[in-house]
Design goal:
6-stranded mixed sheet, about 20% helix, about 260 residues, Deoxyribonuclease I, Chain A, globular, alpha+beta
Length: about 260
């Protein structure tokens, strides 16, 4: 598998839509070992990708055109699981886990708390179960998880923290849940390398020309077991890549083969 592995995570906001744009050019240019997607918004058979050299894994939501995740992997996994084994949270296609000899890889699309925080309780329930799930796996071997976590952890992670306080993605509850996840033995890899980097975001509203003004949020992450801290090589946010309201984020890790 080579000494360094490259991982990409991207909320594509509809895989069929992004395939009509420059998805394949981006996919080929990034040339990752693992390409994790969120919000594929499709059912089985609605899109076919020709990705020579990659295994393709999809988890679809029961509801059409909603949620959904995928992983495209250059390396054959030992095992593949879908969901977190909690029926209440496993109908929306939010989680895929691939097991490898030295690590687990998870793509996750964390529920959005929604307008007026209508789904905050559901979201917090998911956060708690996902924390249990990742902590249990980490007892066996290190975990690398990535995706749209729908939370800006700290004020540095969004353009307008004051006006967005108590809005979905920047509530005290969601931020505290993410802190609890990190406290359980995990690393926010981008902040590991760039603790003070400002004005770097992974999502921008389609409204008000937010992306042109870089009025964004950092809500897409790679989070890894602390056991891997010494093997982390770099983390990047590809805010130059268009095609979705999110941009891809990247992690490179040494010595996973």
């Amino acid at each position: 598998m080579g000494n360094q592995m490259k991982f990409i995570s991207w909320n594509v906001n509809g895989l069929r839509a992004v395939l009509k744009k420059d998805f394949m050019d981006t996919f080929n240019a990034l040339d990752a070992d693992f390409f994790c997607l969120q919000e594929t918004k499709m059912q089985a058979g609605q899109a076919t990708l020709d990705l020579p050299g990659y295994q393709q894994y999809f988890n679809y939501a029961e509801r059409k055109g909603y949620s959904g995740t995928a992983i495209f992997a250059k390396h054959e996994p030992l095992n593949v699981t879908y969901g977190i084994d909690v029926p209440e949270y496993d109908t929306e296609g939010r989680v895929i886990t691939l097991e490898y000899p030295k690590f687990y890889l998870i793509t996750v699309y964390v529920p959005n708390s929604g307008q007026e925080l209508k789904r905050l309780d559901f979201r917090q329930g998911f956060d708690a179960e996902f924390r249990k799930y990742t902590s249990k796996l980490a007892e066996t071997k290190p975990v690398i998880y990535c995706g749209d976590l729908n939370v800006a952890h700290n004020p540095i992670d969004l353009k307008n923290p004051t006006s967005n306080h108590h809005n979905a993605g920047f509530t005290d509850e969601e931020r505290n849940d993410f802190t609890a996840q990190l406290d359980a033995g995990f690393t926010d890899t981008f902040r590991h390398f760039y603790p003070d980097q400002k004005d770097i975001y992974s999502w921008w509203s389609y409204r008000f020309g937010a992306r042109k003004r870089n009025a964004g949020w950092r809500i897409d992450y790679f989070v890894t077991s602390k056991a891997l801290d010494d093997q982390l090589a770099d983390a990047k946010i590809h805010d130059e890549i268009m095609g979705s309201d999110h941009c891809p984020v990247e992690l490179t890790v040494n010595g996973l083969d």
